[in-house]
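assembly run, all chains below
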Amino acid sequence: MTQGQQTESTPLVDPACYAAATAAIRAEAVRLLEAGEVTAVVGYRAGRRAGSAMPEVATTAEAAAQLIFTPGCQNNLALFLSKAKREALPKGKVAVVVKGCDLRALAGLIGESQLKRDEVHVIGVACPGVYGAGADLAKPLAAESLARKCRECKVHLPEGTDVVAGTLPPLPDLAPLEAEELARLEAMTPQERWAFWTEQFARCIRCLACRQVCPFCFCTQCLCDRNRPQAVDTSPRPAGNTAWHIVRAMHLAGRCAGCAECERVCPMDIPLNLLNRKMAQELFELYGFETTMQPQEQGALTSYRDGDDQSFIK
Amino acid sequence: MTATATTTKHDFEPKLVAFVCTWCTYAGADLAGTSRMQYPSNVRVVKFPCTGRIDPVFILRAFQKGADGVLVSGCHPGDCHYMAGNFHARRRFAAFRQLLDFVGVDLKRLQFSWVSAAEGGKWVEVVTELTERVREMGPMREFIDLDASEHWSAELADAELKAAYHSL
Amino acid sequence: MSRIGVFVCHCGENISRTVDVEKVAEAARGLLGVAHACDYKYMCSDPGQALLKKAVAEHRLDGVVVAACSPRMHEKTFRKATEQAGLNPFLCEMANIREHCSWVHEDRDEATAKAIDIVHMLVERVKRNRKLQPISVPVTKTSLVIGGGIAGIQAALDIADAGHRVVLVEREPSIGGHMAQLSETFPTLDCSQCIMTPKMVDVANHPNITLHTYSEVEEVDGYIGNFQVKIRKKARSVDMARCTGCGVCMAKCPQKKIPNSFDRDLGMRPAIYVPFPQAVPNVPVIDRVNCTWFKSGKCGVCQKVCGPGAVDYAQQDEFVVEQVGAIVVATGFNLYDISEKPKGSPIKGYGEFGHGKIPDVIDGMTFERLASASGPTGGKILRPSDGREPKQVVFVQCVGSRAREKGISYCSKICCMYTAKHTMLYKHKVHDGQAYVFFMDARTPGKGYDEFWRRSIEQEEAVYIRGMVSRLYQKGDKIVVMGSDIAVGIQVEIEADLVVLATAVQPRQGAELLAQKLGISYDQYNFYSEAHAKLRPVECATAGIYLAGACQGPKDIPDTVSQASAAAAKVMTLFAKDQLEREPIVAKVNERFCVGCFACKKVCAYGAIEEKEIRDRQGNLVKVVAYVNPGVCGGCGTCQATCPSKSVELDGYTDEQILAMIETL
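ok done. output:
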């Protein structure tokens, strides 16, 4: 992997591209608020730690002028537009800053009737990538500190947004670590995989941060919280944890936008996005289905074709 | 065992659950009965209106509650009493079995089939085959062990954790 | 604590031979919530049922499990007995220990153990059963019939004769459809007009039928028993109430050279016209595209000559809303226009046959008009190009049909018979003429059909050549037909005066658009789909909508009429009661938890799920949730398995019931 070694520790891209995106976001956000086109702009502002960023609901031009786009902008802001989190925003049309992966989530939410396209002004941002979990935010973004999902990102440049902030610099080819990990697991025997996941799920403390951060976990009552009937054990023990993660992956199949926020926020470092990746891969192989940056009318598991694969059915 | 014995006793008799639709497979199993066909008694049938009603959670739950094998069976494509329920089920289970496989459940324990109301023989064949296969495989330990095991006991594997723990 | 009663049946010896029924009853007594358990020789007998009823009263039971045969056998019996005992019938379940146990296992211990497990599962289930009430839906006893061909006419007359109101909508200015265009009909050769027109008049005069001609269905809303239908009545430019049908306007119209599509463009008509003399209603319509008044604002002759003052140039399209309880769809067919490749269609066209380019290559319907006594030639067979009588006519079958490579793989069913009829009609009119037929096989199932076909060969001397035509071309005033005779294995060339193509039967253009309005399904060719190919051939999967005639698939007249009467009978069955009662196994939405993602709506094959707005007292929209229309829900439960939060639940098969059964493992 000579190429990988070459690029691992050097800065990934010229930081100027983030600055350009920041300027464009600010200009658009200020314009929208001053013109009264939106009541709020959901974006990022600098966090207290150097290099970090946090979500910001800007309702004034002053606040809008503080918005940023940096490699620290990890959050998927589409989350704020799912019904469960909508009360954080003022009424009326809002603008939201989205990376390509976030845009897929936004499109998914529109496809699932959680919001209408005309209720939101979408500011897409050309995103070379963001920090992964545990990265040193003080240093410039390098291949080693890049989030795993960004290494294989196919949606650096959002499409179908109202504006696109920034331009995409040339990006190096990086080893697809997640795909490699997926392939490694797929090559195992079922017993080895069971051992792998048992160990992972045993660590789960059921803090449900993965659920909290997922734009698609917008149910008012989660199936996994129900106790009459109880389909999934609620206590944070291995049996219930395993069931929770299986049910979660199944519920996200064909919907997950691949933002990998679940994996990033997991305090126990469980590689949750592997499950989502696996489902996405299967649905693509079986049905040619992919989540896209445009809303789709039918989901992978809410539609069918007469000729769907049934080789597994006797 | 002597050759004269009519039924063979085995060391391990698996528990099987069959989730079936009422219009095709349940009726097919009825036909196996009225035709006095014989098959192993390991299977317990749960009746649904349609395979479209069968939630993957039920399969998971069945394994957790001690099933050694699960059968899901419904109408052949195009025969669905409700037009499209089995088509939706087909996709759902195609995806779900991949997920189970990925977390390490041996798919040999999970069988899907189309058994029509006229296929008493096929019902017998499917149930017999799954019973024998699962009997061969032995008990489904995975979920039972999981149920018995406690939460991660925080073995202080690395130095960082050890330091953190001792500083409490 | 539940008080469940378990009743174990011996079924004579059918169960007790392999299952120790006393042991099953004993085990049942030990289950939590079981208040009573017993066994009996024949539970389904009168004494058996009496035993059940007595036990319900004596032990104050609140649920019943009958461990006996399959529920498909006796569920109704025992639910009825349970109801008679004063319980809700849905609190009774059957544990199938016969078909699923005693009959399929020999080992007594194993069978008994399994029977106990089955009973246990059903006990846990019945504890969680809810009292369900049959669902009633009011029925508006008016039927809409879409299409005024023979199918629509027959269905409308049958329903109207049964005393129900019918709204008949026809797109053309007159009812009659394709049958009105036919010359004579196989296999009896009676004149189509003679048997058709009396029925058309009956429709017009029937007190129970409201006829909307020159009208189209614009919107359909609602569900079985309660549809609202918006009908567009296109501007006829003639006041139906004033017009007496005297025909002076048509006679005086200076514009007389418009090809009449009813005559397949062989005859001409004026701009104000009725499509054919026997039209019903006998009220003309102005063809605004070709009328001089509408083109230039000059003329106005028809208005001047109209005594009753019925001509009204200012007339606008009108909309009528009708409330109906059932819909019969009878939109019929089109003949495949092979001359060109239709845009955006997988169908490829037959450029090599010269249809549309060579004037004497015509299709079967055009031949019908030539042979019709009221047609443009007065019933004489004359070539369109020069009006000469053709002495050699080649008929080509299966043009479009059964040609997978051309995009249609089905058989059009009627062509073999009508081509045989054409050869006969031709021979009757041109005694010295010769008919040739290129065919793949002759398909003549039907009463008197094969005899009819043989007659065309044996008596009328049609020459049948087994093989297909590869090419047609004009040579002087002849058309050279090149084909193969595969029976003899030679190439054939015939110099014909006229070529008649039996083109495929297709659904009406735009059939899919109507299907979308109605919410019914259609196949790859746009033929409407029946609910079940064998057992529900006239019903759509969408409740309350029925199919009649060629819109469902190619059909001849007898089949069309049979299906139309069958559809009418289905409508009458629906209208026999004021309330439509159905089993309460339907989905319900928990509006509190529904987040309105509408995954349920996407998977619902019945279109039973609607979007419902929840508003606060000030009228502000709080949220939009799913609503299941119980009249339409089929009860499959696919919605529930799809709903991520399980906010929609199928009564009778709730998660609680099913998980409790799984819990017994």
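The radius of gyration of chain C is 33 Å.

The longest helix of chain C spans residues 108-127.

not gonna interpret more than that til we talk
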